[in-house]
Amino acid sequence: MKTLLSETIHCMSPLLIVSDLGRSIHFYTEQLGFEINFRHEDFYAGIGLGTHSIHLKAGDPCNSERQRRRKNEDVDLIFGVKDLDGLYEHVCSQTMEVVQPMRVMPYGREFYVGDPDGYVLAFFDVMS
């Protein structure tokens, strides 16, 4: 069933509150390969890969919430990738924090990394 939203939404961008906008931009662009779509002064930016994007806003992320989510293996962003092994090798060669090493789950292989503010990013294998 088509709805107004299914016919009009072009993309969706999660918003992450980050303590240091420059540091977060560096992490996502230099370590993960995103590009800067826009930057507004020193408090807001959009980064993206193709039609996928993330918005970053300077603020005060809740550290206790970040720790609770990590302890419970709750992830903040989930990315499906085609070359999981290549990405994992790249991540392990960087200074990124591997929160969950590569593992096999009933739904496929995955690993998690932490960003500078403690957001947990999951990467899982997309079968072609």
The counted number of beta strands is: 8
Report the top-level CATH class of the largest domain.
Alpha Beta
Radius of gyration: 15 Å
Briefly note the CATH topology name of the largest domain. Signal recognition particle alu RNA binding heterodimer, srp9/1
- List segments where confidence is low: pLDDT < 50 over at least 5 consecutive residues: none
- How many structural domains are formed by the residues? 2
Largest sheet: 4 strands, mixed
What's the oligomerization state?
single chain
SS element count, helices: 4
The fraction of residues in strands falls at: 35-45%
Q: From the 3D coordinates, which CATH architecture of the largest domain would you assign?
A: 2-Layer Sandwich
State the strand order across the main sheet: 1-4-3-2
Q: Into which percent range does the helicity of residues fall? A: 25-40%
Structural class designation: alpha/beta
Instruction: Kindly report how far apart the N and C termini lie.
Output: 27 Å
Strand and helix order: HEHEEEHEHEEE
User: What is the molecular shape?
Assistant: globular
